[in-house]
Amino acid sequence: MSDHSSPSRPPPSAAQPSVTETYELSVNGRARSVPDAWIGESLLYVLRERLGLPGAKNACEQGECGSCSLYVDGVLLNSCCVLAADAVDADIRTVEGLGDGGHLTDVQQAFLDAGAVQCGFCIPGLIVTVHDLLDRVPDPDELQVREAISGNLCRCTGYGRILQAVEDVKLARLADPEGSS
Questions:
Q1: Confidence (pTM)
Q2: CATH number of this structure's domain 106-175, picked from the four choices 3.10.105.10, 1.10.150.120, 3.40.190.10, 3.40.50.450
Q3: What φ, ψ does residue 169 adopt, rounded to 5°?
Q4: Torsion of the alpha carbons at 59, 111, 139 and 94, rounded to the nearest 10
Q5: CATH: 3.40.980.10, 3.30.750.24, 3.30.457.10, 3.10.20.30. Which one for 20-97?
Q6: Average pLDDT, whole number, for the chain?
């Protein structure tokens, strides 16, 4: 069941018959078959509803809130704006695939330690976004952090604890560059 009341997969109209196909996606390092899928399904819908990966959240369906952020071929994207069929042959990495063997990443642990996790709806997208930022810019200033997370909307935290978590990870990574995850 979707997190949002509007459907991620609009039904085909009677005038336009459903076109389905089976394809394979590479998600978090694993080949995943997507059988008999309507080719207009978003990557977000396929991940959540067909492959059982609920990390990316369904909120705005317009690429505005960041709740569905993930990597496609190393590029941070909103999965609600990508057709799943267009991601065939791409390397897809979701929040579930960031950790190593079920262990939390340094960013995930910092969010917990700083109390940045409230309702949890925006947190997966924020976690992916912060990973992207810190992997690209190891020592961002506060303005760079705020700009990086500006596409991730949160209604609970007020962002103070999120900013603290990012600062904590940044300082830990700078102190021990080999220990980052």
A1: 0.87
A2: 1.10.150.120
A3: -65, -45
A4: -50
A5: 3.10.20.30
A6: 90
Q: Could you give the C-alpha distances from 71 to 82, 95, 174, 175, 181, in angstroms and in order?
A: 11, 9, 24, 27, 16
Question: What separation, in Å, do the N-terminal and C-terminal C-alpha atoms of the chain show?
Answer: 32
**38 or 5, which is more confident:** 38
Phi, psi of 55 (to 5 degrees): -60, -50
Cα 80 from Cα 57, distance rounded (Å): 9
Q: Map tokens 């690209």 to a residue.
A: 136
Which of these, 59, 57, 61, lies nearest to 80 by C-alpha position? 61
All structural domains of the chain with their residue ranges: 20-97, 106-175
Residue 9: pLDDT band (50, 70, 90) is low
Maximum distance among all alpha carbons in the chain? 61
User: Mind listing the pLDDT tens digit for each residue in 48-107?
Assistant: 999 999 999 999 999 999 999 999 999 999 999 999 999 999 999 999 999 988 899 999
Classify residue 109 by burial, with Cβ atoms within 10 Å: 0-12, 13-18, 19+. middle
